[in-house]
Design brief:
- By secondary structure, this protein is mostly helical.
- Helices cover about 55% and strands about 5% of the residues.
- It has 15 helices and 4 strands.
- The strands form 2 sheets. A two-stranded antiparallel sheet has the order 1-2. Strands 3-4 form a two-stranded antiparallel sheet.
- The longest helix has 18 residues.
- The protein starts with 15 loop residues before the first helix and ends with a helix.
Length: about 325
């Protein structure tokens, strides 16, 4: 399956949706970078770090709330399963060392795994010696490559990462997918894959150390596993890249108060009627609108432009199966 290390490149297609998402994220990150220090106060950074830890661990089944994580950070006693408390302490320790790690250094990734899984598994910080599968609930959705291939596959992946010329938003998403495909550790692959994507993004812009992408991934957990499987079935990580870029876009948008839109009455009405995923026809009916052109120009397009709603099939804007749903920014608005 894999080519020689010198020429290996993960398979992925750059779609128009990916290009558009990269441009929108880059624009908002540029605005965030210009924010004053007051707007990026230490308290906000602390809250976002808690949201990051809570979201990433919740995907793996940890039930601790943000309030309980704050208590652990403060050294207060928390009544909860010991393993879940240990997971939080490990995550705190790992994120405390976040700035010290280089994403292209394999030994740093092994060290990060050692911190994340200390006291939880015997093989903390070393690649797995047995077979593993990716679970979605009680269902096995992916059987990882044999353990004896893991070291070589990881060498290939790190060489590609070091030489990567794509935008960091794309590179980080590809790495995340390939890491989960290889599943190099006996446990902790999900939380480490998400942490490493954040580390790659942080090297592009330090804002990403404080942007809680993981909490949004947790809110869309079923889709997270779905696009992992879809990418594997297609031998193309474009679905996963698109998903992660949507999560990043929502995260940076919610972290940028100065980009909150001036919502028109028409857009406000549209946001109010959307429930789940709805077709254009269903939206027009809910709004009691007959004129398709007026609906598109005064309601639909402004809401899409502001990132308040999104297409369910962004690669095919005119698809007859196209539907629309609220983004996290739209729900906040």
């Amino acid at each position: 399956m894999k080519k020689k290390s010198q020429s290996y490149s993960p398979p992925y297609a750059i779609t128009p949706a990916i290009v558009n998402l990269v441009a929108r994220i880059s624009e908002i990150v540029g605005r965030l970078t210009d924010m004053t220090d007051a707007a990026r106060a230490l308290r906000l950074r602390r809250i976002n770090r808690v949201r990051t830890i809570q979201g990433s661990l919740a995907i793996e089944g940890n039930t601790l709330s943000q309030e309980q994580i704050i208590a652990i950070l403060d050294g207060r006693r928390v009544i909860a399963p010991p393993r879940e408390i240990q997971e939080v302490r490990n995550a705190i320790a790992a994120y405390d060392r976040f700035e010290q790690w280089q994403p292209e250094v394999e030994d740093n990734l092994l060290e990060a795994h050692r911190f994340l899984m200390a006291g939880l598994i015997d093989e903390a910080g070393v690649y797995r010696r047995g077979s593993v599968g990716v679970m979605a609930g009680s269902q096995v959705v992916h059987v990882a490559p044999p353990a004896d291939r893991v070291p070589a596959l990881m060498v290939d992946l790190f060489r590609w990462l070091a030489a990567g010329e794509e935008h960091p938003l794309i590179i980080s998403s590809v790495f995340h997918y390939e890491f989960e495909f290889i599943h190099p550790f006996a446990d902790g692959n999900g939380r480490l894959g998400r942490l490493w994507q954040t580390l790659i993004l942080n090297r592009w812009n330090s804002l990403f150390a404080d942007i809680p992408v993981e909490s949004l991934v947790f809110a869309h957990q079923a889709e997270y596993y779905q696009v992992l499987q879809e990418s594997t079935n297609r031998t193309d990580s474009a679905p996963f890249i698109t998903f992660m870029l949507r999560m990043i876009l929502d995260a940076v948008t919610s972290s940028a108060p100065q980009v909150a839109p001036q919502v028109t009455p028409q857009v406000s009405r549209l946001l109010a009627v959307i429930q789940g995923e709805m077709s254009r026809e269903a939206l027009q009916e809910a709004l009691n609108l007959q004129d398709r052109k007026s609906f598109r120009e005064r309601y639909l397009q402004p809401a899409l432009a502001e990132g308040l709603i999104e297409m369910t099939i962004p690669d095919k804007p005119t698809s007859r199966l196209q539907k629309y749903r609220l983004t996290d920014k739209g729900r906040q608005c």
